[in-house]
Amino acid sequence: MYLLSTVVASLAVFFFLKWMKKRRYCTDVKRLDGKTVLITGASSGVGKETAVALAARGARVVVACRDAGKAEKAVREIKLRSRSLAVVGMELDLASLRSVRRFCENFLRREERLDVLINNAAMPGVLDWTEDGFSMCLGVNHLGHFLLTNLLLGRLKECAPSRVVTLTCSSYKYQKLDLHDLNYNLLPFFTYCRSKLANVYFSHELGRLARGKGVTSFAVHPGLVRSEWTRHYSLLFRAAMRVLAWMLSASCEAGAQTVVYCAVSDEAARLGGGYFVDCRPATLRPFARDAGVAKKLWEASERLVQPP
Ligand SMILES: NC(=O)c1ccc[n+]([C@@H]2O[C@H](COP(=O)([O-])OP(=O)(O)OC[C@H]3O[C@@H](n4cnc5c(N)ncnc54)[C@H](OP(=O)(O)O)[C@@H]3O)[C@@H](O)[C@H]2O)c1
């Protein structure tokens, strides 16, 4: 009896872990020849895998990274794995609004097209501040991408039909936004959750504002992924997370599938954007669908990114 219950329990755990790691793959084989894709934070993790997948479909891929050395290394790897030479690196530090403006000037001067913008880069929960005095999570994950998207929106409209895919996280649901205290920086995990909720509202409001202008906006949760996000933490935490990641997380390639799906699939475009998980539309918690909050966050963000 004891043996039997041990076997049953082990099987249950085995299938649960297998189910946790299971991901749908993007089956749409559409190519992106002649299209230009810009991906932030493509030096590692989900961003790098997305870059490989889209370059392999014929897109010209611009990888925007804050570290020139890492960018160069990533570009070499993406070219090799995608068998494409149309991959270029550009410097962008989302923790600096000055850098975002400089990047956009360079990008608009150098690149004729922008068909897909992928707002992927993110800082996990760390209690630090950006050059402009914003909490690191709000500054990098939301405000940097907010300014970037707005400065490139004209080019996205010129190249319509175009898409903006913004990476969020299902942990958005653990916090609510305080519009009077957007710069909340007290508990690391909660600052991250709030920035990811801001990504959801941003994506929603962008979709509303760009409706009828040929720009479709997607918010994507890639699921738990074995990326390099733990590098910002202590050795002990990294070791613990590595064990958990091995048990519960999918590969970065699997994590990139919903991003690729939203970037290429006609089916996703026909659905008109929205929140996607595991290559299909998903339902957000009601408070995250509040169009009034999304509009107010957009207006507050416009004020915050104004040059001094
Ligand atoms: N991993 C997961 O389980 C998971 C779950 C849900 C959602 N997500 C979301 O998926 C996206 C990708 O995450 P990931 O797991 O692939 O993380 P990752 O491996 O840590 O990659 C994050 C990328 O963002 C870049 N970045 C960080 N700060 C930047 C800045 N100031 N300016 C420009 N780039 C910056 C990093 O560059 P450096 O290499 O220079 O640091 C890196 O390339 C994120 O939006 C994350 O919130 C991930």
UniProtKB/TrEMBL annotation:
GO molecular function, one term: oxidoreductase activity
Keyword annotations: Oxidoreductase
UniProt cross-references to Pfam families, sorted A to Z: adh_short
Ranges that cross the membrane: none
InterPro entries: NAD(P)-bd_dom_sf, SDR_fam
PANTHER family per record: PHOSPHATIDYLINOSITOL-GLYCAN BIOSYNTHESIS CLASS F PROTEIN-RELATED, RETINOL DEHYDROGENASE 14
Family stated for the protein in its record: Belongs to the short-chain dehydrogenases/reductases (SDR) family.
Name listed for the protein in its UniProt record: Si:dkey-174n20.1
